[in-house]
Amino acid sequence: MLAAGSAVNCNVLVLNRHYLAIRVINVRRAFSLLCRRLAEVIHIEDGEYLSYDFQSWCDLSELRRAFDPNGHDWIKTVRFDIAVPRIIRLSIFDRLPKQDVKFNRRNIFARDGNRCQYCGKKFPTTELSLDHVIPRSRGGGSTWENIVCCCLKCNIRKGGRTPNEAHMKLQTIPKKPHRNPIISVKLNDGRYASWKQFLDQAYWTVELK
Questions:
Q1: Is residue 40 classed as helix, strand or coil in its secondary structure?
Q2: Could you tell me which residues come within 8 angstroms of residue 61 by beta carbon, excluding any fewer than 6 positions away?
Q3: Judging by DSSP bridges, how do beta strands 207-208 and 39-45 pair with one another?
Q4: Considering the entire predicted model, what is its pTM?
Q5: Confidence (pLDDT) at 10
């Protein structure tokens, strides 16, 4: 049984049989797949891809717990501690799901890194709004290319004008992300650095569950 704690909140990248990224799942789901022998752990060490079934990963965890305890997040069970895997590979699944980045407030905030795209300052989401670069009154649509994060002060300053008319400059040109921007946020966490080489090869959108 998995113990409660911060490690349970970690995420695991799922690869299909051909080592292509397909989604991100929580730790509980990952261990369920491993225990049922539907997946194996992929661990990258010194540039090599090493694979482990559930039992061999438990054995490796025992060694890691003794010699490299700070190199992993740990799940405590009744009998032993087990390292949280960062990547697992499905044994038989080889298809890629047809997915798209959802156009919603959460993903826009993630794409822009919670930064106002006019003044460049970072704010909590409660202090941000969404601005139509070309105002709706001018025919501007609600699209990835026309909506940006904007702080309340800049929103008031810009009003119903275009950035040029308000003498304001966009920090970056808004565009649709190639992959789920939430994943990009995760990559800023060093624990998920091993995901990057798989996601950089992706031309699909990895789904966050």
A1: strand
A2: 72, 80, 81, 82, 83
A3: unpaired
A4: 0.54
A5: 85
User: What is the dotted CATH code of the domain comprising 105-158?
Assistant: 1.10.30.50
DSSP strand pairing (39-45 vs 128-132): unpaired
H-helix segments, 68-205: 105-111, 152-158, 181-187, 196-199
Residues 187, 103, 125, 129, CA torsion sign = positive
What residue type is assigned to position 10 of the chain?
Answer: C
Cα–Cα distances (Å) from 163 to 90, 98, 117, 142, in that order, read 48, 36, 11, 16
Residue with token string 């001018």:
138
CA dihedral 187, 4, 93, 192 (to 10 degrees): 10
* Inter-residue contact 56 to 49 (CB < 8 Å): no
6 — pLDDT class (breaks 50, 70, 90): low
Per-residue exposure over 57-89, b if at least 16 CB sit within 10 Å of its own CB, e if not: bbebbeebbeeeeeebbbbeeeeebbbbbbbbb
Domain limits, the chain: 6-97+180-208, 105-158
In the chain, the amino acid numbered 196 is: K
What is the pairing mode between strands 207-208 and 81-83? unpaired
